[in-house]
Amino acid sequence: MNFRQGSKQWYAVYTRSRAEKKVQSELERKGIECFLPLQKKQRQWKDRKKWIDAPLLPGYCFVYVDRKEYDNVLQTDHVVCYITFEGKAALIREDQIQALKKLLQQNEFNVEITHESFEIGKKVEILEGALMGLKGELSEIRGKNKFLLRIEQIDKSIMVEVPAEILSASPEQNLLT
């Protein structure tokens, strides 16, 4: 844990299977700020199709806590543990949380979660649209250009389909990776 006096920081917690919404409700009931990225998906049953809000990152919920709330999160039903990196709870940067929130507010992008590892590709910046100014890596997957936002702390990658004409090579190395 890396707490500055009285400051709150974002962390990722691992939840029990299919309990992400329960964890979110319980944390909100306790007054703990949390973020559960949800995406509308169409599910097929035998007799019908239905649109549901499904977790974008199954098994994960993000919490914004200070030192006093840190242990309280672990005492929440269906929370398994904090995601750790080198033995410490992994900090999630504020800009990554904001980018996720911004991404989910837009309906113009097709968001896909992948567990594949990617080679470091061409650094690009989105020049127009709702995600203008966002930087990342460009990767060719199944013949389509994809914008890759990697959240290293939880070992997940989020790909967004972006037309190639709104991408520009970015000379900067200070990306969201």
Description:
The strands form four sheets. A six-stranded antiparallel β-sheet has the order 10-14-13-12-11-15, covered by helices on one side. It contains three helices and 15 strands. It has helices spanning 20-29, 67-74, 94-105, and strands at 9-15, 33-35, 38-44, 49-55, 60-65, 79-82, 84-85, 88-89, 91-92, 111-114, 122-126, 135-141, 144-151, 156-161, 167-169. The relative contact order is 0.17. The protein has two domains: 9-92, NusG, N-terminal domain (Alpha-Beta Plaits), CATH 3.30.70.940; 98-169, no CATH class. The longest helix has 12 residues, at 94-105. Helices cover 17% and strands 41% of the residues. The two termini are 21 Å apart. It is an alpha+beta fold and 177 residues long.
Task: Give a short synopsis of this structure.
The protein has 177 residues and is an alpha+beta fold. The chain has helices at 20-29, 67-74, 94-105; strands at residues 9-15, 33-35, 38-44, 49-55, 60-65, 79-82, 84-85, 88-89, 91-92, 111-114, 122-126, 135-141, 144-151, 156-161, 167-169.
Topology:
Blueprint: E1 9-15, H1 20-29, E2 33-35, E3 38-44, E4 49-55, E5 60-65, H2 67-74, E6 79-82, E7 84-85, E8 88-89, E9 91-92, H3 94-105, E10 111-114, E11 122-126, E12 135-141, E13 144-151, E14 156-161, E15 167-169
Antiparallel strand pairs: 1-5, 1-6, 1-9, 2-5, 3-4, 7-8, 10-14, 11-12, 11-15, 12-13, 13-14
Summary keywords:
3 helices; 177 residues; disordered C terminus; five-stranded antiparallel sheet; alpha+beta; 41% strand; six-stranded antiparallel sheet; Alpha-Beta Plaits; 15 strands
